[in-house]
Write a structure and sequence with these properties.
The chain is of the alpha/beta class and about 400 residues long. The protein contains 15 helices and 7 strands. It is globular. The protein binds zinc ion.
């Protein structure tokens, strides 16, 4: 998928030119840049200086993006979406290309606060938002056209301060898991090995893309043995962008998405395992089941291996944001750390990691009373528990 509004290449400190002028203008409009406006007069000479770098990092921090000071595709698009305030434009459902922006997120938050279930607050005007908006419109007696125009803006601002409901999406997600029952049988898990094809990911002596594909295959085999179905988003030769990976999981109607990566850092001391789920601290909103599953993976991996515990964190990366089911990204060690790299190059260690991930999946669907201690679930036991063998 390509975007109208995009950057040709990543921009970072030291760059100059019209694209930098536009980035600075966007940061200035968000109040993140002092004196950004005077740069507009002479866009051609705009400079990505230390102040711009700081502003980009602050913005990335606020939005749950990777904080690196670099304006790549995701940061640029998020900057572009951030300019919309509710009431700036008419909001409606566009099937082929969803409207995206802070105004959509505000609308969703207000609908949720009033108890109209529009799914989660992701800033994308999809079918659930449209349905919830219609429901709201019917309730307040205005034409239920699913379009958020002047009449609806007025009704929203009059009502949303006075009515506060629950968090329907959080409740619905948890209920879906409870209803799913204690087995993995019939579950569809999408395994997403990062990178691939021409995109090798972090390379060192080991190649990230090949390594996570190997891990995904080991997890796939074990999940299949428990009676669930597992699909990989890619083969060994190709690569997809994050949005296509999310679309694949959505089209497949998956129950769970597990994205696999290994990390790298300029400091060889950096080491350990971290997990990420959909969430945005600024909006105070996150995927409840995603956070729970991330925590389960984190605990199983750290109980079964001596990888350092780098904990789980909320992020708004496309794969986490655009998937309609709980999704977790796992960064299993650092290729730039000699200890982690040595561990990852051992197939037996990769088997242990695969078992940890499968145990976390099983634990997610176990009823609370039947939970075994972390690190104790074994794969043969999983097979019999699921009734698949
Ligand atoms: Zn990666």
């Amino acid at each position: 998928m390509s975007f109208e509004r995009s950057v040709q290449r990543p921009y970072r400190r030291g760059d100059a030119g019209p694209a930098v002028a536009e980035i600075r203008a966007k940061l200035a409009r968000l109040g993140l840049l002092e004196g950004g406006a005077d740069q507009l007069a002479d866009g051609g000479s705009a400079y990505f200086d230390a102040e711009t770098d700081r502003a980009v990092r602050t913005f990335q921090q606020q939005r749950g993006l990777t904080v690196d000071g670099v304006v790549g595709v995701t940061t640029y698009r998020t900057l572009d979406e951030a300019r919309w305030r509710i009431g700036d434009r008419i909001l409606f459902f566009v099937p082929a290309r969803l409207q995206a922006g802070d105004d959509v997120a505000t609308l969703q938050q207000r609908l949720l606060d009033m108890g109209f279930d529009c799914g989660r607050v992701d800033g994308l005007f999809g079918t659930e938002t449209q349905l919830a908006l219609r429901e709201f419109q019917r309730n307040v007696g205005i034409p239920a056209d699913g379009t958020c125009g002047p009449t609806t803006f007025k009704a929203l601002s009059q009502l949303s301060r006075t009515v506060v409901g629950g968090r329907p999406h959080a409740m619905r997600e948890s209920e879906a898991i409870n209803r799913a029952g204690p087995t993995l049988s019939g579950k569809l898990v999408i395994l997403d090995p990062g990178h691939g094809g021409g995109d090798a990911g972090h390379g060192h002596t080991l190649n990230e893309g090949a390594l996570v594909h190997d891990l995904a295959s080991r997890i796939e085999g074990r999940l299949t043995a428990t009676g669930s179905s597992a699909f990989l988003t890619r083969g060994t030769e190709n690569s997809l962008d994050e949005i296509d990976r999310a679309n694949f999981a959505n089209a497949a109607g998956a129950d769970l998405v597990i994205s696999l990566h290994v990390d790298a850092h300029t400091n060889p001391e950096a080491a350990g395992c971290a997990t990420f789920y959909y969430g945005n601290d600024r909006l105070g909103h996150h995927s409840v089941v995603g956070a729970h599953f991330a925590d389960l993976v984190q605990r199983e991996v750290c109980a079964r291996t001596d990888l350092r515990d780098c904990r789980s964190h909320p992020k708004t990366w496309d794969l986490l944001r655009r998937t309609r089911m709980p999704a977790v990204r796992i960064e299993l060690g650092y290729l730039t750390n000699p200890g982690d790299a040595a561990r990852l190059s051992d197939p037996a260690f990769r088997d242990t990691l695969a078992e940890a991930v499968v145990a976390a999946v099983q634990r997610l669907y176990l009823p609370p009373g039947e939970d075994a201690d972390t690190g104790l679930l074994r794969i043969p036991a999983l097979g019999s528990a699921s009734g698949a063998r």
